[in-house]
């Protein structure tokens, strides 16, 4: 259950990061509110998952989901470049997440 909560927390991190981009520095009300609501939800779910998962594992997985997810949103929704170096970096992050999951009990 904690793993599912942690994955949802990571997805919510992607949502708030994207909404923050759309808020244009918190100058637009609706994206700003979405950012704050999903930040609170994401942090709350992360805290809940940390009740049973190790700190290093939970935080690394949460951050990695947010980082790779935001990277993909940037490419597919915002039209950011998908250079070979950026793709390699994302693959390395995903590899680290898989290793972190495999190493936890």
TrEMBL record:
Name recorded for this polypeptide: Guanidinium exporter
Keyword terms: Cell membrane, Membrane, Transmembrane, Transmembrane helix, Transport
Species this chain originates from: Acinetobacter terrae
SUPFAM superfamilies cross-referenced by the UniProt entry: Multidrug resistance efflux transporter EmrE
Transmembrane segments: 33-50, 57-78, 84-102
Predominant subcellular localization, coarse grouping: membrane
Family per record: Belongs to the drug/metabolite transporter (DMT) superfamily. Small multidrug resistance (SMR) (TC 2.A.7.1) family. Gdx/SugE subfamily.
Topology class, membrane: Multi-pass membrane protein
InterPro entries, sorted: EmrE-like (IPR037185), Small_drug/metabolite_transptr (IPR000390), Small_multidrug_res (IPR045324)
Lineage, broadest ranks: Bacteria, Pseudomonadati, Pseudomonadota, Gammaproteobacteria, Moraxellales
Location in the cell: Cell membrane
């Amino acid at each position: 259950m904690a793993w599912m909560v942690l994955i949802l927390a990571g997805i919510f991190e992607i949502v708030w990061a994207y909404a923050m981009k759309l808020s244009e520095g918190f100058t637009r009300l609706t994206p700003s509110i979405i950012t704050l609501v999903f930040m609170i939800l994401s942090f709350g779910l992360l805290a809940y998952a940390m009740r049973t998962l190790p700190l290093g594992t939970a935080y690394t997985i949460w951050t990695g989901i947010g980082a790779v997810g935001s990277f993909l949103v940037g490419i597919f929704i915002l039209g950011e470049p998908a250079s070979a170096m950026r793709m390699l970096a994302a693959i390395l992050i995903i590899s680290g997440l898989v290793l972190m999951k495999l190493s936890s009990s």
